[in-house]
Design goal:
Blueprint lengths: L6 H13 L12 H69 L6 H9 L3 H11 L4 H59 L55 E3 L6 E3 L4 E7 L6 E6 L5 E10 L6 E2 L4 E5 L10 E6 L7 E2 L1 H7 L5
Antiparallel strand pairs: 1-8, 2-7, 3-4, 3-6, 4-5, 5-7, 5-8, 8-9
Helix pairs in contact: 2-3, 2-5, 3-4, 4-5
Length: about 350
């Protein structure tokens, strides 16, 4: 888990740019011009990371779409193969009937059909020489058509597999770019020694027991709070963010149970920056979810959680104007790799 111990420091620095420094808070370190230049470089890197997040999500969608089409193609091929097997059995029955009747009949043409690697070709010449046998000719045509459809489905499957490999490579490249750009941005902000955005007294970690407040459910995915009234959405503007809102806010009072939206491992627990008390969970599908501004944290790094497990209680710690839950979905654990949480939840059957 390479991000344990780094997620919080990145959030502390990056949030200072997103939220803005506390007015009147003096910064030590490089001169103002150098700090501004470093912050500007960090901002450019974060924009690069945002573009890489878009590429990652596009590749993910293409992979998932391709997987669905590949499954459909596989089902078509399997059905066509069953149809072909039935046709070949019908041809075999015709051959046996001709043989039992004592006449050469179709046996001569059908025997090569059954034994040949290209039985339709073997039958075509022999059966069509007997122009009066229309049923056999029609059956041969159906065999050929079935084989052609199977060949087409196999060609489609090969094309889809090739496209899957291309998109998987694109996705891995985009993820590496996200991580690299955000690591560089973190380094630039450290170089600039960006001050904390909130007073430390509002960012003190608060650990406590929340066992029994949230329990695992039979559902794979759930809403982070219940009820779940929405407030500021992903990408929203406002005077509390330098550019855009990085998650979805839920307008709940202090003390509301905050739940893991799905099974995963607690990757990070921290406090002291613009997010206040926060928890980051990594899910088996590779995404991470963040739960911020908590009044109480009830889990520790390394804890395994299920959908519905209580992570803590909502609150108003960090850079806030009132109590609420700030919820993020990220491609990587780092701040700056977020995507819109609502479509992500909707795809997983969570409608709030």
């Amino acid at each position: 888990m390479r991000w344990v111990g780094r997620v919080g420091s990145a959030a502390a620095l990056l949030t200072a740019v997103v939220a803005g420094a506390v007015p009147g808070h003096a910064a030590d370190g490089p001169p103002g011009g150098d700090r501004a230049a470093a912050a500007a470089r960090a901002e450019r890197l974060m924009r690069d990371a945002a573009r890489a997040v878009e590429a990652y999500e596009q590749a993910r969608a293409a992979v998932e779409s391709g997987a669905r089409e590949l499954a459909r193609t596989g089902r078509r091929e399997a059905a066509e193969q069953r149809r072909l097997d039935g046709l070949l059995r019908a041809l075999g029955q015709q051959a046996r009937a001709e043989y039992r009747s004592g006449g050469g009949g179709l046996w001569g043409p059908v025997l090569p059909l059954i034994t040949s690697r290209s039985p339709e070709r073997a039958l075509d010449g022999a059966v069509r020489a007997r122009r009066g046998d229309r049923a056999a000719g029609q059956l041969t045509d159906r065999v050929r058509q079935a084989r052609d459809r199977i060949a087409a489905d196999r060609a489609t499957a090969a094309r889809l597999l090739g496209a899957q490999r291309v998109q998987a490579t694109r996705r891995a490249t985009a993820r590496a770019q996200i991580e690299a750009r955000l690591d560089e941005a973190q380094a630039e902000l450290r170089r600039a020694q960006v001050p904390q955005a909130v007073p430390a007294s509002r960012g003190d970690c608060a650990q406590g027991d929340v066992a029994g407040l949230g329990t695992a459910t039979d559902r794979t995915w759930v809403a982070p709070v219940d009820p779940a009234p929405l407030s500021a959405g992903f990408g929203a503007g406002g005077d509390r963010w330098a550019h855009r809102h990085t998650g979805q806010d839920f307008a709940v009072d202090t003390g509301t149970t905050v739940r893991a939206v799905g099974a995963g491992t607690v990757l990070f627990v921290g406090c002291g920056d613009g997010f206040g008390n926060q928890v980051v969970v990594r899910h088996p599908n590779g995404y991470c979810t963040q739960y911020a501004h908590l009044s109480l944290i009830g889990v520790s790094p390394g804890d395994e959680v299920a959908a519905g497990t209580a992570l803590g209680l909502s609150g108003a710690t960090g850079n806030v104007s009132g109590p609420h839950l700030h919820f993020e979905v990220r491609v990587t654990p780092q701040l700056g790799s977020g995507i819109d949480p609502m479509p992500w939840l909707h795809v997983r059957g969570v409608h709030v």
